[in-house]
Amino acid sequence: MGCGLSKAHIRSEVPVSHGNARTTIHGRKLIIARHRAGWRQAHIAAAMGISRKCVRTWITRYDTEGDAGLVDRSSRPRTSPRRTAAEVEDRIIELRRRERRGPAWIGAELGVPARTVSRVLVRRGQPRLAALDPMTGQVIRSSKVTAVRYERARPGELVHMDVKKLARIPDGGGWRAHGRAAGSTSRDRATRVGYDYVLLWSTTTSGWPTPRSSPTRRAPPAPASSPAPRPTSPHAASPASSG
Fold first, then answer.
1. Pro residues bias: where (predicted)?
2. Tens digits of residue pLDDT in 30-82
3. Burial class of residue 203 in the structure, from the number of CB atoms within 10 Å of its CB (0-12 exposed, 13-18 middle, 19+ buried)
4. How wide is the angle at C-alpha 77 spanned by C-alphas 72 and 83, nearest 5°?
């Protein structure tokens, strides 16, 4: 198995400062500002809680590269001689798309460790098998590396509705107040109190759910003069109002 390094397969890396970093881009600029103001490097290090070597490093980078020297640098090595060859990665992707099998099967076919196959699939942005259609191989489910999302451009174009059924509490309290030994008033059909249904509406655009409570059908209907709910946008108007 040959090994090689192809620049075409090197993805751009976004440098991210770790949570325990003492100096961010703002702290490095503060080091330069204090150095220009005449502070000694030892005093700058003591004031910022870092070593003098760290202060000297950022001052040297600024003197050499200017503001660009204060930006985070990638920790990726310049060369990776033991990286999987581009030809092997292409064969892994080809088998994945044609056979739709996992890293263990692909690794056994190519003589590559399953962990290496898994890393290649992630590096090439391949979705998980659970996100693919088992017959066609098309992406049908959303994941971190796919763009299949239930999103719409206008509010009200796609609405999700959830229903929650809540039993009403009779006058004087229910069984939690009087105990189960007292019996249930709902056994007698004439004394049934019914249920309330909480309807939760949400759109894929705004993301703001709107809960509403709806009584059972036994309740009297709303008066005919009650205003109809307004649409969330002109594009989401009902067919009756758009005619």
1. 218-232
2. 999 999 999 999 999 999 999 999 999 999 999 999 999 999 888 888 888 88
3. buried
4. 145
- Output 70 or 10, whichever has higher pLDDT: 70
Query: Residue ranges per domain, the chain?
Result: 1-8+78-149, 25-70, 159-224
DSSP states of 156-211 as a string? TSSEEEEEEEEEPPPTT--HHHH-GGG--GGGSGGG---EEEEEEEEETTT---EE
Q: How far apart are CA 37 and CA 19, in angstroms?
A: 29
Report the 10 Å Cβ neighbour count for 106.
23
The edge-to-edge listing of strands for the beta sheet with 210-215 is 159-167, 195-203, 210-215
CA distance linking residue 213 with residue 199, whole number of Å: 6
The two three-digit tokens of residue 171, written as one number: 């006058």
Q: What is the pTM of this model?
A: 0.42
Alpha-helical runs (H) found in the chain? 25-36, 41-48, 52-65, 86-99, 103-110, 114-123, 175-178, 239-242
List 198's β-bridge partners, or say none.
164, 213
pLDDT for 151-185, tens place per residue? 677 777 778 888 999 888 877 777 777 777 665 55
- The token duo for 231 is 């649409």
Structural contact between residues 163 and 157, judged by C-beta atoms closer than 8 angstroms: no
